[in-house]
Design brief:
By secondary structure, this protein is an alpha/beta fold. It is about 20% helix and about 25% strand. The model has no long low-confidence stretch (mean pLDDT about 80).
Length: about 120
């Protein structure tokens, strides 16, 4: 079930500019953060790639669904919230790794983003 959605410029247009990535995140999530008093955010996908907010290494497969909460994450602690409210609250942002494996034909394969979500 989708509660809501929004769109932004996409990571390829922000490529590696962490200030722009942060500003875009806070702009796009402003209403949700205000409505739900968000203190933490869990992000996956290209945001953890080498052109994202910070690089997060892939984790090897196979992996059990029971192990997913144990995946190492990069945590950006106490990131100041930006935007119209600018109320000096901070949130912790968790960047979740993608998964990778070696297929039966010995070709590497990886999952980020939609597959990880």
């Amino acid at each position: 079930m989708v509660h809501d959605h929004c769109t932004g410029p996409g990571i390829s247009l922000l490529a590696g500019n962490t200030a722009d990535i942060a500003a875009t995140f806070f702009q796009l999530t402003h209403a949700w953060r205000k409505q739900f008093a968000v203190q933490q955010a869990l992000l996956c996908g290209v945001v953890g790639s080498n052109i994202g907010w910070q690089t997060v290494d892939y984790m090897p497969c196979p992996i059990s669904l029971l192990d997913v909460p144990l995946l190492p994450q990069k945590v950006l602690k106490k990131v100041p919230q930006q935007g119209p409210e600018n109320n000096d609250r901070a949130i912790n942002i968790h960047l979740v790794p993608g998964l990778n494996c070696l297929r039966e034909d010995h070709i590497p394969d990886s999952m980020r983003g939609e597959e990880t979500q």
